[in-house]
Design a protein that fits this description.
Blueprint lengths: L5 E5 H14 L4 E5 L1 H5 L3 H8 L5 E4 L2 H9 L6 E3 L17 E5 L2 H9 L11 E6 L7 E2 L3 H7 L9 E3 L11 H14 L6 E2 L3 H6 L7 E4 L22 E13 L4 E2 L5 E2 L4 E6 L16 E4 L2 E5 L8 E4 L11 E5 L5 H7 L4 H7 L6 E4 L11
Parallel strand pairs: 1-19, 2-3, 2-10, 3-4, 4-5, 5-6, 6-7, 6-8, 8-9
Antiparallel strand pairs: 1-11, 11-14, 11-18, 12-13, 14-17, 15-16, 15-18, 16-17
Helix pairs in contact: 9-10
Bound molecules: pyridoxal-5'-phosphate.
The site of pyridoxal-5'-phosphate has 13 residues, from α8 and β10.
Amino acid sequence: MTRKTLATIKLASLKANLHALQAKAPSSKTLAVVKADAYGNGAIEVARYIEADVDMFAVAIVDEALALRKVGIHAPILVLQGPHESSELSYTFSHNLHWMMHNQQQIEWLSNSNNCDENWGAHLWWKFDTGMHRLGFAIEDFHALLKKHAKYINQHSVIATHLACADENDTAHTTQQIDRFLEQVAQASMPLSIANSAGTIAHHNARQAYNRLGIALYGSSPFEADNTQMTLLPVMSLSAHIIALRSIPTGDSVGYGATWVAARPSIIATVAIGYADGYPRHAPIGTPAICRQQRISLVGRVSMDMLTFDVTDAEAVKIGDKVELWGEQLAINEVAEWAGTIGYELMTRVSARVPRHYEYGPEPASKKER
Ligand SMILES: *Cc1c(COP(=O)(O)O)cnc(C)c1O
């Protein structure tokens, strides 16, 4: 592949983020969430790189877990959606999978399997709905459920919930969810799991036996307005190269729909990346990128394979220059805000056409003290 469009993944920065998050919650165990190909960063490479530093991995669906087993990842893997059908449970003991159980039908599937009931306890997480209203058993039914399904539950079974608003500065909803949860489960003395990235960073009593860390590992702050003082290092840098430069006169337009019209004689750089690579098509005129340490602005519509930038005010721009769409010089969350979305979506949508290039290297020393 000679097109230079690339997602560069700095694994050392990811590990630094992991260690910084672990330092926030030293008595919690860590699940590294590597669903959706580790949020677009490459689940296999990420899992290999941090396996020794985490207690478990988490994925959304069983296929993602099996793909990790296939390449020799040994750490236990939690399947966050639980089984989608009973046949998936046959992988539990052969592949050391753990399941987030969240509905009655999944419990019925356990009884169809030919494993001894008491073996299940250590492989099951039980998800309770404390206000997210997406998955989970009603938290009010906690004691009844434990009693009814006692044969599948032991002191290793993890009791979990998921926070709807942990990323917001208004903490009322989160506090209510955590309180509801802790009130019901307090006497059970079983391991608990509440926190995602935002919960781990910002909510002290969300840090329990297991924290489920996703987006923050990958260096994008989960917070809308981040006032947490937690510095995360960007992990993915998305870049492409200028493949054409042209001068256009005042009044000429650029791109499909002729949506941008030059208000002055302008120099337009065409960059070899588009929405088929995962760059958001809705990124508006003015969305920034970086070329030669200078900010440049998107003009015209995002095409399938190309973007156009106004480089009139940028110095020394040439064909072949590298343009960073987001990454170390431009926060992914800033681009996401321009495009009306969140860092999670931009990261996970970088398409298979974009090669991932991994940088290993030492963990940035100065950041270890955070
Ligand atoms: C994806 C996911 C996480 C990780 O969330 P982040 O915000 O990326 O840290 C945690 N728990 C559950 C249940 C999830 O689905």
